[in-house]
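Quick illustration, no need to memorize.
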Amino acid sequence: MAANEDQEMELEALRSIYEGDGCFRELSPVSFQYRIGENGDPKAFLIEVSWPETYPQTAPVISMDAFFNNTISSAIKQSILDKLMVEVEANLGTAMTYTLFEYAKDNKESFMENQPVNTVTSVSNSISIGPPDVPANKKKDKKEQLSKTQKRKLADKTDHKGELPRGWNWVDVIKHVSIIKFSFNIKKICKQ
């Protein structure tokens, strides 16, 4: 098979395997990105694989230069690329993009074990005029104060468990039908 036929077959396989996967992104028919890890994971990273014209007989170009990887140290990036190149050498001559992505997913923890977890904190430069804000945990919730009469009426409506009796909001069908007939007769009279 020619290199282009191999690439077409692998492209079709990648599209069917990663259909609906939010981590996979096809940049072009010969360039792909895969996010290893979940969104918001501080140890997540993105791998970009590009195929040269003679791929799979020659090694693909693997890059970690995406903006997504800015928080990863260059030493960790180089370490990941070196480990992926070992896999490339082992699979040279065969379709290996899926294999590389799966290898990276399986070894994510070992790849990122030396990566420090950075927590981002935002600094606010706002000035407020007026009384200082009370923190939410110090603010006391006020209970609704009921008078004796209100409490008595509430107790009369509910049973000993504090629940309303069955059917408290039912509509009397006979009264409802007679009201509808009455309003219908009024409409008839108004039209005449």
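The domain at 3-110 is CATH 3.10.110.10 (Ubiquitin Conjugating Enzyme).
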